[in-house]
alcohol dehydrogenase
Amino acid sequence: MDVGYHKSFESSFESADTTGKVITCKAAVAWGPGQPLVMEDVQVAPPQQMEVRVKILFTSICHTDLSAWKGENEAQRAYPRILGHEASGIVESVGEGVEDMKKGDHVIPVFQGQCGKCICCRNEKTNLCQRFGVNPLKSVMVNDGKTRFSTKDGNPIFHFLNTSTFSEYTVLDSACVVKIDFEAPLETMSLLSCGVSTGVGAAWNVANLQPGSTVAIFGLGAVGLAVAEGARARGASKIIGVDINPNKFAKGKAVGITEFINPKDLGVPVHERIGAMTDGGVDYSFECAGNLEVLREAFLSTHTGWGLTVLLGIHPSPMLLPLHPMELFNGRQIIGSIFGGFKGKTQLPKFAKQCMCGTLNLDEFITHELPFEKINEAFQLLIDGKSLRCLLHL
């Protein structure tokens, strides 16, 4: 965003008096599985106790949004619905009891909340939250079981992943809103809502990747490339990218991937090729594809005795892990990761400052930018494999 425009917007936003009032704004509404999103005038109610209403400035689309839009999991369907969970914006107003944020603060929404009080939030070993953890079945607010979105005639519009960022204004539980440095660039900070935090955090927090380590990443979408960026920043000596789309390789080089494997070009299993390249296997592998066969290859690509596989891909299949219990006696380990192990409200602000200091190159992840009303074009770019993140300007 242009600096002059940014300051002008801040000034006009601060002077606007919408606190306690219903706001009518534009939102991209999903009316059914696979149907084009419809730009609608929706009503956004004021925040209730421990809720925050946010003016969204930037949002983008990830494969989780794509899956929900397609309605791939029938149990998770709820329509009409406002999707979106990767964004940045400015606090418009806060509900009763919210003390860590105020109007005008720069924030990012997070689907993995942090209440700070439950047994999980009080345990440093996990970033789960019993009350505000990610739940794709949840479609209403915790306070009253109702929505804060409605159509012009008063019918409810459902929420998505604690966030619903495909709207000019949204209401979130305060546990799912993270205040960041006022000087942080909101364009790139939007990436911290999901993809970049998920990938980099998997390398830093979950794997605790050490300098000189060898790494294999299966699936080079935004999350996989964020893993690579995190591994590069931690000083990995070899970062192998695995993907069936050779177009991903150029972008991979920009974020630190040193070698590439296209499984279609091999006459042997991928794990055998990686073993030959790394004296028996990598120290860490990351599965970012959501495919059980890929998960097994990732597991077998790690070195016996100490190899660690981190599972990041979303697996819609009801099939169980493709591992025999006895294989774990060889010393290989496997662990899942949600939101990169970050506790949103307490750890993400520091991560944002690290990004501001140039520790990571976030600009590489934004491949396209479009106005909000062209959101369906942005979806198509992702479907066609042409974009990592298409940043939508609201």
The mean pLDDT is 94. Residues 3-15 form the longest helix (13 residues).
